[in-house]
Amino acid sequence: MRVRSSVFACFILIFEVLGVALFLRGFFPVPVKSSFSSKSKLSDLPAEPLAGSPPNSTRLPQPLFRRVVLMVVDALRDDFVIGPAGSHMPYTRYLVEKGSSHSFVAKARPPTVTMPRIKALTTGSIPGFIDVVMNLNSPALLEDNLIWQAKTAGKRIVFYGDDTWVRLFPKHFMEYDGTTSFFVSDYTEVDNNVTRHLDSTLKRDDWDVLILHYLGLDHIGHISGPHSSLVRPKLLEMDDVLKKIHGSLVSKEAEGSLPYLLVLCGDHGMTETGSHGGSSVPEVNTALVLISPAFKRKAGMERPGEVEQVDLAPTLALGLGLPVPQNSVGRVIPGVLEERSLRDQLRFLHLNGHQLSCLLRDSTPDYQKEAGFEQFRVAEKAHGSWMKLYLEGNTSEVLTNMGKKVLKQYLEALAAMSSALSKQLGKYDMYSMIAGMVFVFQLLLVLLLAMPEALSSAAAVDLPVLSSLLSLPFYLLCLLLASVHVLVCTSAESSCYFCSLSWGLVFAAVAFSSAMFCILISMVTRRLPFGPAVHGKSPVRSSGGEWSLSELDVLLLAGTVGHTLSLAASSFVEEEHQTWYFLLNTLCLAVFQDVCRKYFREQRGSGDEEEHLLLSKDIRSSAHPKQEVVSEKWLALATPPFTLLCCRLLRSLNQTGVQWAHLPDVSHWINSSEHKTVLSLLSALCLLLIYLLVQRRCSLVSKVALALGLLGVYSYRAAVGSVLFPWQRSGRAASKGTVEARFVYVFVLGILFSGTKDLLRSQIVTADAKLKSRGLWEIYSGLVLLVSLLFRAHNLPVLCCGLLIQTLMAQFIWKKLHYDAAQTTIMHYWFGQAFFYFQGNSNNIGTVDISVGFVGLESYIEAPAIFLTALSTYAGPLLWACHLVCYLSSERERSPVAVGHGCYCLALLRSVPAAAYIVLVTVLRYHLFIWSVFSPKLLYESMHLLLTAGVCLVFITMEQSPGSSKS
Amino acid sequence: MRHVTYEQRHKPDIWNRPHISAEAAIMWDHEIRAMASSHSIIAASVFMATVLPAVLVPGFSVYGTHLLWLYSVSAAVAAVSVSVFWLLGISPPTKKHTLGYKLSRLFRSCLYFFLSCLFFHTVVILYGAPLIESALETFSLAVLLTSLTTLRCLCVLGPNVQAWIRVFSRHGAMSVWDTCLQITVAFTLIGAWLGAFPIPLDWDRPWQVWPVSCSLGAMIGYLTGLVVAPAWIHYHRKQLTYKCK
């Protein structure tokens, strides 16, 4: 089957998008959430079970503790407290061995990073990756959590320590002081800032919950590892703090009132090199020590039991007499309850079990089959009959034994339900990920193998679809893959998205994958010299010898490959804009060298044979006065330096990235209120320039519409209050500018409509290339107008410079230096990437400007808001890609297949980094920065892939079939 | 000024070239040997310029007192290259031997040196170096790059822009020394270019401070170029052909 390059590239891209979507679904497991978005309430609690009579009272048993002190020491590994290194904390050691305490090894779930671990400690759930990505814009924790419950119940909470808590729980604390973990090299001050409040707080009596979060130990770990000499004094310091708190709590202990609870725990551990984030044993094992006079005194050291970190949340909730947070998957630690009466113990376990069974019912479709759920039902019934006997006043030995049995049943049910729930969480769905990856790689390989054909002068790819569909290996592969699928899905313990798809879809995927594989094989054999010569004159070999690379080609290839490789380093992902600026600068210098070479050589070696070509051209254009040729030469020579200058100015407009993002930039200066006049002048100038640059190729009607539209943009900005109107009274309040924005939308739609009309007419009625090119440019100018409305006022220079560079480069460089479609496409792509960052974007979700979604809308409407946000975020790459379409199709007389080549190159340029990045993310899935750096970038990459697929669709419509272009 | 014809430039078909005579081969060997020895002298001067201050100046280190190292190396390379190339007599013969002409040549060379410093400074700023802050560091880097590249051009080709353009256009080399110049300059610039890559990494190492990595990269590239140039010419001497003056 012969398909055109553009159709082929578009087809590949669309399927790649599907593959990436499958990968994303596996990479970001959907979190287990209760279907109600509300929070647990005391009134919703189930009644105490009682057989044969109307439900008992729903009241909670008396809380276990009056006051709770939660002391979180960042990176407190289990062996620092209970292991051999525990001698560094003598007082804690004494309490663990002799005091009334319980100590455990609490297992944290990966990713072992502070923020998700705090969430786990307070909500009892295991936060998924997508949670964090989705919540980057609203850092406050909205899920049901312990702190909210405590605050709602009227508990007064005091917090000192890592300011992540303050961001997660704004307005929850009666009193707080956040310390930042920004300076890792500081490990003294950061803890002193916590401890300095301690004395005064411990003296007072006006709080119920005190939370301390010490960061110093984690910082020491990052600097010099767990065996450094700094760890010992730090642990001693922590020990002293614990001693102080314990002493004060003991002295305040009053007869008759409820006891206190002191919890010492770590949020995560650290590896032998001191880092964390992954899932190795030393990172996952944290210490958990509960100290309270409510516990039995211990005789000697016992082996600490193992609990899950999430178990702390229900334990604390029940201990304080609060409902268990709704999404908690933890189970109450039974040791804490052991001194209470049997009735209370059963009641606590029942509450916990009820919450878990509700969550299980909400999150799994066939919850009835779960063993734990059934066990819980049985236990609840037994509990009811036990209660009946108990209330009848029976106090025999039999009753106690029966109660113990119910207790055991409850504990088993809790364990089963908790493990069933946590299996769904915090795990990568590797099968879906691998399936997605395989799809993407098959497609990428087919794309790569088709390169010689797609870039040949015919610009058509011969895909052996039919022959491979009718071949035996195809059916064998189908069978093999289907059986593998069944095997994997039946043996997998955890839920897997790909397995839960319907059979038809899965079979389509299997057939598609095996067909791709067969096509791949047959293409490889065709390429190989010993393969069957399907086409005697393969375009590769005939043109293979002439392939020589210029410096520019080397740079373009090396840059593309180098950028893809650089994505493996988290710093290069964070600072990706630097890579692009650097490459772009080098590109401009290389182009400059090319221009210099062309013009200086032309000038000097007029007798050369190479000049004959140019001479003949000169004769053709001899009508031009010589003056014009000279001025053109100097303009061409000035273009690359001018581009460099523009790039340098734009780069200082918006500082992005991480390391240097805090530096003051031009946009800050220009946005401050005292420079409003400058901003107004600048944006007016930019809009004027945009008009001048864009209007040249439009029809008269569109010109007028464009001018009015740009005026509308200025008045929109004035209405919003970012720029000044010369005749505006200063006292006017800033409005939302809805009317002005809609005014602009009307013109945008008008221009787009007129452009589309021209295009359609050229396509259907008359094959007029001029009309077609005008239609294209009109659509382009409509897009520019829309973007200029969406861009913030300080970003208008980015748009303006972009248009200027496009015009100059097209006029003097790409046309004059005879760059082919592939080179032009790569350059456009690089410029597009650089402009993406010039706009102030970064690989962090936080820089997406969501306010764009409200331009011209009275309230939030999802579909247009998402469309507008995506458009404004990716304005740079999109505008450059659109310019590429316009430029290549206007160059059709030079090379009729340029559009096809351009489309193919664009598809290749986008799929190579996307495919490589998928593999990188899979390999680095336990990396420390997977959440903060790599996951957002993955979302950006997928979004970009999707947009490129859209642009390629436009390419298809633009590419005329060879038959019609001849006419 | 020499007039050069450029027939060879556009006919790089190395396959149809007449065989080099034995005489020429001996001359080539001689030139390559001269090149290798001059390069080793320059490399030794770089080494000395690093070691001597370390002995003499207390508290000297390549990272800590980077600018001092940079200027000492620049000065050493400049002095040694000028003297070595003057002794070898590679620089093109001057037509006039008047003092005035020589002085004007010297003056022009100095001017070119300075202009080249400004040029490199501009390019580095266009690459994203801060404009005002750490301008001294940026300029020092420009001085280093100039003394590694432009100074060598001045020594070999003289203050003659036409010759420079010829050498740095494709197939423009006319002698072993031109090829050597191309190789060392390219290596130095590529070294400096590659040296910028570690800057965004968050390792907090002393050599990531601006402009240490770039100047070290340039220096390493230059030293590599010094080694590679004679070796490459030696191994490709059969394929190399120049249209002689």
TrEMBL record, chain A:
Functional pathway: Glycolipid biosynthesis; glycosylphosphatidylinositol-anchor biosynthesis
Name assigned to this protein: Phosphatidylinositol glycan anchor biosynthesis class G (EMM blood group)
TM regions (residue ranges): 7-28, 430-451, 463-488, 500-521, 677-694, 706-727, 739-755, 865-890, 902-926, 938-958
Residue ranges, annotated region (Disordered): 38-58
Entries under PANTHER family matching the protein: GPI ETHANOLAMINE PHOSPHATE TRANSFERASE 2 (PTHR23072:SF0), PHOSPHATIDYLINOSITOL GLYCAN-RELATED (PTHR23072)
Compartments it resides in: Endoplasmic reticulum membrane
Bilayer disposition of the protein: Multi-pass membrane protein
Record family assignment: Belongs to the PIGG/PIGN/PIGO family. PIGG subfamily.
Entries under Gene3D superfamilies matching the protein: Alkaline Phosphatase, subunit A
A Pfam family hit: Phosphodiest
GO process annotations (BP): GPI anchor biosynthetic process
InterPro entries from the UniProt entry: Alkaline_phosphatase_core_sf (IPR017850), Phosphodiest/P_Trfase (IPR002591), PIG-G_N (IPR037674), PIGG/GPI7 (IPR039527), PIGG/GPI7_C (IPR045687)
Domain of life assignment: Eukaryota
SUPFAM superfamilies linked: Alkaline phosphatase-like (SSF53649)
Species annotation: Xiphophorus maculatus
The entry's keywords: Endoplasmic reticulum, Glycoprotein, GPI-anchor biosynthesis, Membrane, Transferase, Transmembrane, Transmembrane helix
GO molecular function, one term: CP2 mannose-ethanolamine phosphotransferase activity
GPI ethanolamine phosphate transferase 2 C-terminal domain segment(s): 551-942
GO cellular component, one term: endoplasmic reticulum membrane
UniProtKB/TrEMBL annotation, chain B:
Compartmental location: Endoplasmic reticulum membrane
Name of one Pfam family that matches: PIG-F
Broad class of the protein's primary localization: endoplasmic reticulum
Membrane topology qualifier: Multi-pass membrane protein
Residue intervals passing through the bilayer: 41-63, 69-89, 110-132, 138-158, 179-197, 209-233
Organism domain of life: Eukaryota
Tagged with keyword Membrane: yes
Pathway the protein takes part in: Glycolipid biosynthesis; glycosylphosphatidylinositol-anchor biosynthesis
GO cellular component: endoplasmic reticulum membrane
Keywords from the named record: Endoplasmic reticulum, GPI-anchor biosynthesis, Membrane, Transmembrane, Transmembrane helix
A biological-process GO annotation: GPI anchor biosynthetic process
Protein name: Phosphatidylinositol glycan anchor biosynthesis, class F
Species per Swiss-Prot/TrEMBL record: Xiphophorus maculatus (Southern platyfish)
